[in-house]
Specification:
By secondary structure, the chain is α+β, with helices and mostly antiparallel strands. It has one domain. The protein has 1 helix and 4 strands. The protein has a 4-stranded antiparallel sheet with strand order 1-2-3-4. The radius of gyration is 12 Å and the shape is globular.
């Protein structure tokens, strides 16, 4: 059975431009994975990573930036 876990160990993380800049509200995204967008909480850099497909992520950003 194929693994559903994505290897994000080589991710180049950056703070999302949609984070408000506060010390406690930072979201990080990794752009160096074609077709997927890994997302994590910057306060827990060794914590869980959510992985979104590029199209669902774009839809999410469209919705939250209105």
């Amino acid at each position: 059975m194929p693994s559903k876990t994505r290897d994000t160990s080589a991710s180049s993380w950056r703070k999302s431009s949609y984070s408000d800049g506060g010390a406690n509200n930072c979201l990080e995204v990794a752009d160096n994975h074609p077709g997927i967008i890994p997302v994590r909480d910057s306060k827990q850099s060794d914590g869980p990573v959510l992985v979104f497909g590029a199209n669902p992520w774009a839809s999410f950003l469209t919705y939250v930036t209105k």
